Amino acid sequence: MNVLDLFGYSIDLLAVLLLALGLKGLSTVRSARSANGLAALAMGLAVLGLLLQVQPDPIAWLWIAIGSAAGGLLGLITARRVPMTAMPETVALFNGCGGMASLLVALAVALYDSADADLVSIISIVISVFVGAITFSGSIAAMGKLQGWLGTPGWTQSGIRHAVNIVLALMAVVAGFALPADPTGLPLWLLLVVSTLLGIGVTLPIGGADMPVVISLLNSYSGVAAAAAGFVVGSQLLIVAGAMVGAAGLILTQVMCTGMNRSLVSVLFGGALGGSAPVGGGGDEAGYSRIVSCSAEECAMALENAERVVFVPGYGLAVAQAQHALRELSKLLEANGSEVSYAIHPVAGRMPGHMNVLLAEADVPYEQLLEMDTVNPEFPRTDVVIVLGANDVVNPDAKNDSTSPLYGMPVLEVDQSRQVFVVKRSLGAGYAGIKNALFELPQTAMVFGDAKAVLQQLCTELRSQGVGKVAA
Ligand code: NAP
Which helix (H) or strand (E) holds 139? Predict the structure, then answer.
């Protein structure tokens, strides 16, 4: 081992440590931003470590540099351009790229360097091609469905899809077993084709509501594919990083299933049935017997006298891009002597951490963000709760009505507070596509309108009453 190799391995080790620290840091809001930076630095070091370890070969270095620059640029442009509401599709696309990269690495080794490969390498190639192809095609199908480019074909909602997927899976197993005897021939291509079709066959029937869970699972698969590719090319760094992504994706999938009160089995095999409600509003407005609505002016009066105010952000806040208006209102209320906090449900919005990211954009202090378990006991002593574009995550039927599709899902118990204002554009349903019992409670009043417009009106009303003048 020469000095460059030693240096390269040390950098690999540092990259692994930074990745682990990055993953750990992502678990709290306060450290998430810097943790993301650490993980990005780790990836940069990983590329540097690789450059040092490959034989001094300007052509190889050039290819690695071109690939890194092109990928980095694309990632940068995407991160800057994609709106927060389209993040699930973006993550799906990134997962697909990860799966494809592992698949291509395994294919290249199988085709050009498998003559003396041992059994471990061959098994790793099989796993990498199988999982990588499923991840790639499944992620692209998931992105297509979320973008509205792909629908849910009727046949995928019948038993036929299970038969098709079982046949594809069996063909993949046969091809996998046949591959060691002929690593460059028909079994490799058969494995590639049936695994790709299997990814589509498994993802296509899944409904929109369950898609983010599937994306999280595919994220885990991309880690498994990368770890297998690490065995194929003998890269410890890839093995460790892939294993971390695989485990993290699996844990996140479990957290999301719990938050949405769904089992992974029902997500994967239940299809779109009961899970394809309109995304982000719409739905049935009928069926409400008692609805009280009020103006922003009345809501502002209640806020002016409230000692303790809790905001409940939901998907509609992200759609309205009302986070800055919300922060402005919070500042006015704080200047008026109110204690302000934000109740964060684990699956509010359309991706894990959606509300945290949104509120962080508006510089909301981390200590004001309260997790569901912390804030629920606080609601009985809360004067005013303002629900902003949230719906399912505050539906009391999840606790009280055993016939509700949401029954069993942990929710924010805003119905326990003294006064609730629900800001949304209509009585339209949320993601689950069902009625919300909160809207009919005696302490609830609806403030109809776009979240941003209503928040701006509230600020104007409070200012017109002289609130905030002293602090300013
Ligand atoms: P939600 O139940 O989807 O409700 C969002 C509400 O926002 C709608 O009822 C809509 O009502 C309102 N809205 C839309 N645009 C608005 C605007 N411009 N101004 C004001 N209101 C607006 O949202 P949620 O309470 O955040 O619940 C999240 C749901 O997504 C849960 O069912 C969860 O299981 C599901 N989900 C979450 C994740 C995740 O990881 N976070 C992943 C997958 C699924 P109007 O149309 O009447 O305005």
Answer: helix 119-147
Bridge partners, residue 448, by sequence: 424
Decide if 216 contacts 248 (C-beta within 8 A): no
Ligand 1 atom at shortest distance from the alpha carbon of 346: 41
- Between the CA of 359 and the centroid of ligand 1 the distance, in Å, is 16
Where along the chain do its domains lie? Answer: 1-81, 88-276, 283-464
CA dihedral 39, 40, 41, 42 (to 10 degrees): 50
In this prediction, residues 444-469 reach a mean pLDDT of: 94
- 134-to-129, 138, 139, 253 alpha-carbon distances in Å: 8, 6, 8, 17
User: Residue 430: CA atoms inside 13 Å, Cβ hemisphere, count?
Assistant: 28
Closest CA to ligand 1's atom 10: 281
- Residues serving a catalytic function are 392
Q: Ligand 1, residues 146, 255, 264, 347: which to mutate, most atoms within 8 A of Cβ? A: 347
SS3 content of the chain, % helix, strand, coil (to 5): 65, 5, 30
Is residue 389 within 6 Å of ligand 1 at its C-beta? yes
What's the pTM value of the predicted model, to 2 decimals?
A: 0.78
**Both tokens assigned to 194:** 């049936």
CB neighbour list of residue 463: distance below 8 Å, 6 or more residues apart: 332, 469
What contacts 294, CB < 8 A, 6 or more positions away? 421, 445, 446, 447
Sheet with 369-371, edge to edge strand ranges: 369-371, 339-344, 308-313, 384-388, 419-424, 444-448
Residue nearest to atom 29 of ligand 1 (CA): 431
Q: For residue 78, which of 59, 97, 102, 60 has the smallest C-alpha distance?
A: 97
Residue with the smallest CA separation from ligand 1 atom 47 is 426
How is residue 388 written in tokens?
A: 């902003």
162-220 pLDDT, tens per residue?
Answer: 899 999 999 999 999 999 999 999 999 999 999 999 999 999 988 766 788 889 999 99
For 50-97, the pLDDT digits (tens) are 888 777 788 888 888 899 899 999 999 998 998 877 888 899 999 999
Looking from the CA of 68 toward its CB, the CA atoms found within 13 Å total: 15
Nearest protein CA to atom 22 of ligand 1, as residue: 316
Taking domain 283-464, whether its CATH number is 3.40.50.880 is answered by no
Print burial letters for 153-179: b (CB count within 10 Å at least 16), e (below 16).
eeebeeeebeeebeebbebbeebbebb
